[in-house]
Write the structure tokens for this entry.
Amino acid sequence: MTASKNILVLHGPNLNLLGVREPEHYGLATLDAIGQRLAARAKAAGVALASFQSNVEGDLVNRIQQAQREGVDFIIINPAAFTHTSIAMRDALAAVKIPFIEVHLSNVFAREEFRHRSYFSDLAIGTISGLGSKGYELALEYALGAGHGSA
Ligand code: DQA
């Protein structure tokens, strides 16, 4: 994989509530704080990074389609509850063929059975689950080309 230059971070429903929402699962970092850390890292690397959160499935589908028109070359996505339900978002990612990493703050495999199924994982380059907000940063490092010598 070549280093990415135009990265989009997508957040699904209820992630706007990070920091107050079930901190035992999702930690205390707010979405703003996560976004700021990612933006600072991207800036230091000289890479464009945009973030988008929505509680609306269609808006996320539209944003994925828009990413192709914008020349986005890597997506980091936490589809949140849509992970387990959204064929529409899966189809959008398959259509645009932009490589992506699926991130979950919590370890979905240590939780309810309905969270074990993802409509995204088989299309993803990889999945990071259970590392809290650090997961986004590790996904970004991968996108930037660091730490994947064999990829
Ligand atoms: C989540 C896990 C999902 O099962 C859940 O619906 C979320 C967040 C996570 O980041 O751990 O909203 O994607």
Notes: Residues 14, 78, 80-81, 83, 104-106, 108, 115 surround DQA (CB under 6 Å).
